[in-house]
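Quick review question:
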């Protein structure tokens, strides 16, 4: 994801800490867009999914737009991921 964002000249911060007490994988600060990359190892169990949904809820309440991508989607269709990001820019 990092390489693709850089290639498209989309400014971002990586591993960006938010005041809510957690760290975003990528943040587009000007647009307040959080990009989360969910590897199957960490994000495919019901407990983690529930926790991620709650994080998304908190972020949205704080004015962030949240975009989540599964690791497989990133590996197989990074261009599609970038298109999706550009649609909300």
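Suggested answer, residue by residue:
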């Amino acid at each position: 994801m990092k390489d693709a964002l850089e290639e498209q000249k989309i400014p971002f911060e990586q591993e960006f800490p938010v005041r809510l007490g957690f760290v975003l994988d990528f943040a587009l600060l000007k647009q307040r867009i959080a990009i989360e990359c969910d590897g199957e190892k960490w994000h495919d169990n019901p407990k983690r999914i529930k926790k991620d949904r709650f994080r998304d809820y908190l972020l949205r309440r704080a004015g962030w737009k949240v975009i989540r991508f599964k690791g497989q989607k990133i590996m197989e269709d990074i261009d599609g991921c970038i298109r999706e990001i550009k649609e909300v820019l």
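Why it works: Helices lie at 2-7, 40-43, 46-61, 71-76, 78-88. The longest strand covers residues 23-28.
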